[in-house]
Structure formats: structure tokens, C-alpha cells
Specification:
With 142 residues, this protein is of the alpha/beta class. It has a single domain, classed as Alpha-Beta Barrel (TIM Barrel). 49% of the residues lie in helices and 13% in strands. α1 runs parallel beside α3, α1 crosses α6 and α4 packs parallel to α5. β4, α5 and β5 form a beta-alpha-beta unit. The chain contains six helices and five strands, in the order βαβααβαβαβα. A five-stranded parallel sheet has the order 1-2-3-4-5. The longest helix is centred in the last third of the chain and has 15 residues.
Length: 142
């Protein structure tokens, strides 16, 4: 998976804000769910959210990653749902087996990224959201 600035994705408005700034900057980004989101929000929610963003930003290259925590069952369920980029924090041997399964479907299972910029706590529509995104893109694009 390419190394791009990573951002926590929790909602369509957050995704729009992140991708609008990324598009203006001409920088691809990685949108990452919260840890374990596959288990509490579901792969269907993630797929619908990311499909909506892809439809709104068809010319912007960005990557999405659904975090499955340490649940192999969540990984397999997400693969069945059509999600192809997954993060797994369980045992290395299990990760290898899950990744091999995902590759057969055109996907991948990797370790979660160490850090992702989190917009939580910033007021919607506030310039600080845009500034946080710009700073993260600038610091990771150098």
C-alpha cells in the first residue's frame, strides 16, 4: 500500500473535507476507519461511505482502509462484502493467512497504520479543519 497522508474517516462530511483539500493540493491520501470499525460499524457501512466518496471524487486517487481490529471473522466478512483493503492487528500468522485469502480476491490485509490525522474535536465548517488537513498533507508529502 502506498505511503500517503492518512486521515481517520468517520463520516461523509469528513471525507468530503479531506478529499476537497487533497484534490486542491493534488495529493493522494489514505482514509482509515477507526480501530475495529468493521466489528462495530460494519463493512456495509464502510463500503457505502467509500463508494459515495469515490462517486463524488472520481478523478482523485485515494486509498481506503477498513480496520478489523484483531477479528479474523471481521476480515472475512468484509471480504465477502466486497471491501478489499483491510487492516488486521491480530497474530502475524493469522495476518499472513488472511492476506493470502484477500490477494486471491484482488485485495490485501495489512497492519494498521501507526498514525492518522484525526479531525475529531474540530468544529464542522471551521477553518481549523482545513488547516489540520493542509498541515498533515504538507508534513507527509515532503
Amino acid at each position: 500500500m502506498p505511503h500517503h497522508p492518512a486521515f481517520r474517516l468517520r463520516s461523509l462530511p469528513d471525507g468530503r473535507a479531506i478529499l476537497s483539500v487533497a484534490q486542491a493540493a493534488g495529493v493522494p491520501v489514505l482514509l482509515v476507519s477507526d480501530p475495529g470499525a468493521a466489528s462495530f460499524a460494519g463493512a456495509g457501512w464502510w463500503r457505502a461511505l467509500t463508494d459515495d466518496l469515490r462517486a463524488e471524487f472520481p478523478d482523485l486517487p485515494f486509498t481506503t482502509l477498513l480496520d478489523c481490529g484483531d477479528s479474523a471473522g471481521a476480515v472475512m466478512g468484509a471480504l465477502r462484502e466486497g471491501v478489499r483493503a483491510l487492516a488486521f492487528s491480530g497474530p502475524p500468522g493469522t495476518l499472513e493467512k488472511l492476506h493470502a485469502m484477500a490477494v486471491q480476491l484482488g485485495g490485501q490485509v495489512i497492519r494498521p497504520p501507526e498514525a492518522a490525522t484525526d479531525l475529531r474535536g474540530l468544529r464542522k465548517g471551521d477553518a481549523s479543519i482545513r488547516q489540520a488537513i493542509i498541515q498533515s498533507i504538507d508534513s507527509k508529502s515532503l
